[in-house]
Amino acid sequence: MNSFTTKYIFVTGGVTSSLGKGIISASLAKLLQARGFSVTIQKFDPYINIDPGTLNPYEHGECYVTDDGAETDLDLGHYERFLNIPTSQANNVTTGRIYQSVINKERKGDYLGRTVQVIPHITDEIKNRFQLLGKSGRYNFIITEIGGTVGDIESLPYVEAVRQMMWEHDKDCLVIHLTLLPYLHTTGELKTKPTQHSVKLLLENGVQPDILVCRSIQSIDDDIRQKIARFCNVAPDAVIEALDARSIYDVPLLMAKEKLDLVVLQKLGLPTDSKLDLEKWEEFLDKLHHPKQKVRVALVGKYIELKDSYKSIAEAFVHAGAANDVQVEVEWIHSEDVNDETVQQLFEGIHGIVVAPGFGKRGIEGKIIAIRHARENNIPFLGICLGMQCAVIEFARNVLGFKDAHTTEVNPATTHPVIDLQEVQKKVTHLGGTMRLGSYPCQLKERTMAYSIYGKKEVSERHRHRYEFNNEYLKDFEKAGLHASGIHPEAGLVEIIELKNHPWFIGVQFHPEYKSTVANPHPFFIGFVKAALQYQPSPGVRKTEKV
Ligand code: GLN
Fold it and tell me: Which of 422, 465, 470, 509, when mutated, tests ligand 1's pocket best, judged by the most ligand atoms within 8 Å of its CB?
């Protein structure tokens, strides 16, 4: 690690939401990492939930889980996928968490005699959290993404805390403002006014951005750069163009072309002569953009209207596709659409079926029918969390003949609770943060498919669930060909199941997608894509297409 005091880079957003602050933050971090610096990224979310764990995926997309069991914003997934370093609870803070800790201190008497206020108490707490990871001494740069859009009431305490940080640690702080330049088709112009206004909003709160990253569908010419620079008090070379990219993984290269990393280093008074080594990243992009074949994989879930609900699975397929030199085309299939009449047609031309994680009753029967289709037709299958539980239910009903077999999550009165709560979970009354969360070891049985895919005896994978395979039934399942190939070493919980006499049929109680990164695609996704490539569908369906 380079020896200088930790630098804090804040990324704010203006004009609209969804401009991609997470990807810009991750891309800048990637560039700094590729120059040999140690970097981490953290996200501060303005909502009052303690974490996104209790949020419906429709509200906020996927809930991403870290090794230490934090339920976090999906942007942390991008940070890990780009940087290939794990994040933790400290990397995601919400307003709810800030207030909770201030209120706890107030109850303990820490502020005795004083009125507890947004300034200084809430802003002090925010500043402490901004610097928590920095204090570990492990990082040259801490990039902090501030959720929401400048001007939102909820964001105000964060912007105020940034202002105070700039005042107190001027030389070690930098603000990047991400904004939008709308393009007017009628006049054929990019407009700068919304950007000017959003910088004014920041200035009203005492924050002068150092760099403006401008999302735009057209290249920004010199005149526009000069105009933005003049109106917003930034140097013209600090006006960075961010065009729509071919994929999120192309953004670091676009930012390198615009010299975002160099402008950051200059502004922080750091040397700019380090070598930018993106060789591996470019190799990955080359594979991503030049696939030799295409496979079609179905993802069966109930939140498919919002693709962000399955972000990490979709990205894991991007990584595994590149690793196999193929393009994985993901067909999103709504589990409520799958029934005995539709199944054949819905999965026609599909080379592999993934059944997604989920909670509750809705869509579960469709998932079970999709799994039966995969099992009976030798279609490669990967069941993730609820997807694995559904595979167990399907097998119990259709092979073992336990007609009402179910998970007690959906049918507590079933006579065959093949998926059930663990004793510890039965006592839980609160919903937030009470599942089996985070990394747990998993021991693999030799001579199983799981063992040969991982190539080792013990792995560690991330969990997010309450229900488990019911070991009372294990013997029945194994006798009929569904085997437990991965087990939690102490608790004996079944973590992986696989089917004998099927080319590729695996269910995992954990979430392999959380650990798939550009540098380390997950072996299960690589193996699944390979199996999908080899799958021979019924006559008349073309297996792969050249692209
Ligand atoms: N609802 C199931 C459970 O809690 C599965 C959860 C999931 O798929 N993440 O066990």
Answer: 465
Report DSSP letters for 219-288, one per residue.
Answer: ---HHHHHHHHHHHT--GGGEEEEEPPSSGGGHHHHHHHTTHHHHHHHHTT----S----HHHHHHHHHH
Active site residues: 385, 511, 513
- In the numeric block, the tokens 């209120």 are attached to 103
The Å distance, Cα 435 to ligand 1 centre, comes to: 9
Q: Are 267 and 321 in contact (CB under 8 A)?
A: no
| C-alpha of residue 339 to centroid of ligand 1, in Å | 22
DSSP annotation of 147 reads P
Are residues 75 and 145 in contact, defined by beta-carbon separation less than 8 angstroms? yes
Q: What is the pLDDT, as a whole number, of residue 306?
A: 86
465 C-beta closer than 6 A to ligand 1 = yes
Alpha-carbon gap, residue 364 to 62, rounded angstroms:
19
Q: Which of 385, 406, 392 is nearest to 508 (CA)?
A: 385
Q: What is the distance in A from the centroid of ligand 1 to the CA of 510?
A: 9
Atom of ligand 1 nearest to the CA of 359: 1
With a 6 Å cutoff on the Cβ, whether 386 touches ligand 1 is: yes
pLDDT in tens, 140-159: 999 999 999 999 999 999 99
CA distance between the termini of the chain: 43
Q: What pTM did the predictor assign? A: 0.94
Distance between CA atoms of residues 13 and 149, nearest Å:
5
